[in-house]
Amino acid sequence: MDYKSSLIQDGNPMENLEKQLICPICLEMFTKPVVILPCQHNLCRKCASDIFQAANPYWTGRGSSVSMSGGRFRCPTCRHEVIMDRHGVYGLQRNLLVENIIDIYKQECSSRPLQKGSHPMCKEHEDEKINIYCLTCEVPTCSMCKVFGVHKACEVAPLQSVFQGQKTELNNCISMLVAGNDRVQTIITQLEDSCRVTKENSHQVKEELSQKFDTLYAILDEKKSELLQRITQEQEEKLSFIEALIQQYQEQLDKSTKLVETAIQSLDEPGGATFLLTAKQLIKSIVEASKGCQLGKTEQGFENMDFFTLNLEHIADALRAIDFGTG
């Protein structure tokens, strides 16, 4: 805390010094002992204890026979998280410098005369100080207003007692608000963690789903290749059989063609003796060739491949019915 530079910049050093010595919780001058937080901000130890207890309602205080770790709370000035050990706020270091400055300030103030106009004056009775509080109207006023003025029928109380009561109430409200802010921050942190875990879990199940579908694709590809191979094998067997028949018939055709040519040449033979020498054997060969035409044939529907038919409707329905939670 740079008190020197703050005092130099302000025309009224005592007033500025007082501003530097205000606790952010009770809004009053620090009450000793004054503790310094790790973030270098200061608090009355009582105020620090109040917000610590509000943020850690189940923390066991000093003197407990149970050894446990400390809690945590946030600095009301900068929101820095303060993590305590098992001693709680009593484990925080006292700021002796601030305490000494408070003592010097109070001594200086006590030695100075009260400035005129430093106490609020009544608007109705300009020479009267505001020294009582109207409980009925809930406004501060002066004694003359109670005796002769608008508040003579009202219930009043000493200003100092109401002042301390409302200050205590405001301090409690601040503590509750600070504790509430800590709880909200805790919820925000939990929600951020939930968001991160949700993303991680989504990524994991997406990976698992992709792997399962990749496995399904691989099974389908494997089965497709197997069935295509069976069709190809059947095709090759049938084509081989047909090509063999074609070869046999082609050989028979070539042989018959040669016999026809030979028979035609024999018919052109003018000499009977010469013709008879070969005619009988030629006729026999033609008869045998005619019998040889009884070669193998393909059965009706031989080229049909309809038996390679799949009914995949039930499988397609099963694939369409794939969904989460269906086992």
UniProtKB/TrEMBL annotation:
Subcellular localization is given as:
Cytoplasm, Myofibril, Sarcomere, Z line
**Signal peptide from the UniProt entry:** none
Q: Which residues form a coiled coil?
A: 217-266
Keyword Ubl conjugation attached: yes
PROSITE patterns per the UniProt record, alphabetical: COS, ZF_BBOX, ZF_RING_1, ZF_RING_2
One GO cellular component term of this record is: Z disc
Q: Where is the RING-type domain?
A: 23-79
What biological process terms from GO does the record include? Answer: autophagy; defense response to virus; innate immune response; protein ubiquitination
Q: Which Pfam families match?
A: zf-B_box (PF00643), zf-RING_UBOX (PF13445)
UniProt cross-references to SUPFAM superfamilies, sorted A to Z: B-box zinc-binding domain, RING/U-box
Q: Where is the COS domain?
A: 267-325
This protein's name: Tripartite motif-containing protein 5
Question: Organism source for this protein?
Answer: Rhinopithecus bieti (Black snub-nosed monkey)
What are the leading ranks of the lineage? Eukaryota, Metazoa, Chordata, Craniata, Vertebrata
